[in-house]
Design brief:
By secondary structure, the protein is mostly helical. It contains 19 helices and 4 strands. Among the domains are: 143-199, no CATH class; 201-249 and 350-370, no CATH class; 252-345, no CATH class. Strands 1-4 form a two-stranded parallel ribbon. The model has no long low-confidence stretch (mean pLDDT 92).
């Protein structure tokens, strides 16, 4: 994983040459090197070679479903060939004989994509079945929009009672989501207070729709094009720390991470409780803990672990993160990000403060890099 990081400052052709040589010697390296080499060809607009790199990786590693998922995502998100993507996703899905709840299995990520494709294609029966399977594993990436879509499919199939149950679970999971409550009131006979006074704020939050922000995208240019037209004097431009990290290329597919014994040991002491449709704490995942160790260093993580344990005895929370540092708190584990980055471990930006100041100096507005999941 860090091998790829070490060459990211090189010229793109040098990176390609180095990675090709590396994969010749290490053909079973897994998703990391194949994915990044394919990405480099995408940057050069050589989509055919980018595709061939992934196919070659699959040929060398036929049992690696993550590489197959990467190929499906290449078709779906990069070249927007939905039909070929669907074929790949269904091929992966056929490997599973029973549901898999683990976030370290490709199962949920394939289901996420298949529900989207079937729903967008208007295939009611197939979309309903995929949504049923996805819903039953209670994944944290079952968004408010997914609850609405699944309920609408159930209504089309005449299953009113199950649609009500699904929406009730959705509102319990996303209590601030107005669209869910409006759907419940309009189609299911509920009477939720959509404009609850307790949710009102003197601060106006303006969500800005952008294209999917990808690895190596120019964040400043995206902000100029999509956010600045809405900005007014005194506004603050906020950027998700996860999105900022993706643009910096700080993304690590789980298959590329070599988990140490230390990471496995310490992660066991993080709260392992997994909330239905909410997931568990990121560092309960040993893969995320491994990234924390590599970001903060062994000493800070071990000290944070020991002092955190002492702090808990005295009722003090958050000691681990204070000692281990900002990066340990910013790490997102699967499936925190939206596809195609939902099976990646994503730390925060290299330096959030410097990044915010650099963007501010260019666009002329105050900028905040935020780690926030739901703002209402």
């Amino acid at each position: 994983m860090r091998y790829i990081d070490s060459i990211k400052t090189f010229d793109i052709d040098d990176r390609i040459r180095i990675l090709k040589s590396y994969l010749t010697e290490n053909p079973r390296d897994g998703i990391g090197a194949y994915r990044y080499l394919s990405h480099l060809y995408v940057l050069k607009n050589d989509y055919k070679e980018a595709e061939e790199i992934l196919k070659n990786g699959i040929e060398k590693n036929p049992e690696n479903l993550w590489l197959q998922l990467e190929l499906g995502d290449f078709y779906f998100f990069t070249v927007q060939d939905v039909k070929r993507a669907e074929e790949v996703y269904k091929g992966i899905f056929s490997h599973f004989k029973e549901p898999q709840k683990s976030t370290l299995s490709p199962y949920r990520y394939v289901l996420k994509r298949l529900t989207t494709i079937a729903y967008n294609n208007g295939n009611v029966d197939e979309a309903t079945e995929f949504y049923r399977l996805f819903y039953e594993i209670e994944p944290s990436d079952f968004y408010a929009s997914d609850f609405i879509k699944y309920a609408s499919l159930l209504l089309k199939n005449g299953n009113f009672e199950l649609a009500k149950k699904v929406v009730e679970v959705g509102i319990k999971t996303h209590p601030k989501n107005r669209e869910l409550k409006e759907f419940a009131n309009q189609y299911l006979g509920f009477n939720y207070d959509v404009y609850n006074n307790s949710q009102k704020s003197t601060i106006e939050k303006i969500p800005v729709k952008t294209p999917l922000i990808k690895e190596d995208d120019n964040l400043i240019e995206i902000i100029k094009q999509y956010a600045l037209p809405y900005a007014r004097n005194g506004d603050i431009i906020t950027i998700s720390s996860c999105v900022a990290a993706i643009a910096e290329g700080r993304i690590y597919p789980v298959d590329s991470i070599k988990v140490s014994k230390l990471a496995r040991f310490i992660s066991r002491f993080v709260n392992q409780e997994s909330i239905p449709f909410g997931g568990a704490a990121p560092l309960a995942n040993p893969y995320a803990m491994q990234i924390a160790i590599e970001e903060a260093g062994v000493l800070r993580i071990v000290m944070g672990f020991l002092l955190g344990a002492i702090g808990k005895v005295f009722g003090l929370n958050g000691v681990f993160y204070k000692v281990a540092g900002e990066q340990s708190a910013l790490i997102d584990d699967p499936p925190a990000a939206i596809p195609p980055y939902d099976y990646y471990i994503i730390p925060g930006p290299i330096d959030s403060n410097k990044l915010a100041k650099r963007i501010r100096d260019v666009i002329g507005f105050e900028v905040a890099i935020v780690d926030a999941n739901e703002l209402g």
